[in-house]
Design goal:
Elements lengths: L5 H30 L3 H27 L19 H28 L3 H31 L3 H12 L6
Helix pairs in contact: 1-2, 1-3, 2-5, 3-4
The chain binds fe (ii) ion (2 copies).
Length: about 170
């Protein structure tokens, strides 16, 4: 198999940073929700953070498998607080859209270079992002519907807290 190009190595390393950045952001949201005693949301966010770290590692492993070198860059400090639960999930939804844009740029770069192996690896991420964007925007819609109904918020917190593990 063709060794990864210097340019693909750099862009994939950027994506490793973005996935760990997402992980860090979700962990910050987990801490925010735990403080508010919204423990179901906090659990959901923790699981999401672990999932993002796994995404980062998928790319990390791929770079190594292709004879490339992983270099870790600094990740942004996530906001420690959010104005409301819906604002936190809106931030998550917008961040997912940003991550999708990064994946699409990567795919374009891989296509331009005729790097078929990177394109194949990225297929999984393209599909995953559809799911991630759908899930986060559905949660935003539900939270908006609940508004300031405390019992609705309580029930939705319980529901998200039942989230099982995923990739
Ligand atoms: Fe991700
Ligand atoms: Fe994500």
């Amino acid at each position: 198999m063709m060794r990864i190009s210097a340019h693909m190595q750099k862009t994939l390393n950027d994506q490793v940073r973005r996935e760990f950045g997402a992980s860090y952001l979700y962990l910050s949201m987990a801490a925010y929700f735990a403080e508010k005693n919204l423990n179901g949301f906090a659990r959901w966010m923790r699981m999401q953070a672990m999932e993002e770290a796994k995404h980062a590692m998928k790319i990390f492993d791929f770079v190594e498998d292709r004879g490339g070198r992983v270099t870790l860059e600094g990740i942004d400090r996530p906001p420690p607080d959010f104005p409301t639960p819906v604002a936190a999930f809106e931030h998550a939804r917008d961040h997912e859209a940003h991550v999708s844009a990064g994946i699409h740029q990567l795919y374009e770069a891989a296509a331009t270079e005729k790097d078929w192996a990177t394109q194949a690896m990225l297929q999984w991420f393209i599909t995953e992002q559809v799911e991630e964007e759908k899930t986060s925007s559905q949660i935003v819609d539900t939270l908006k519907m609940i508004g300031d109904n405390a019992s609705g918020l309580y029930m939705f917190d319980q529901e998200l807290g039942r989230r099982g593990g995923a990739e």
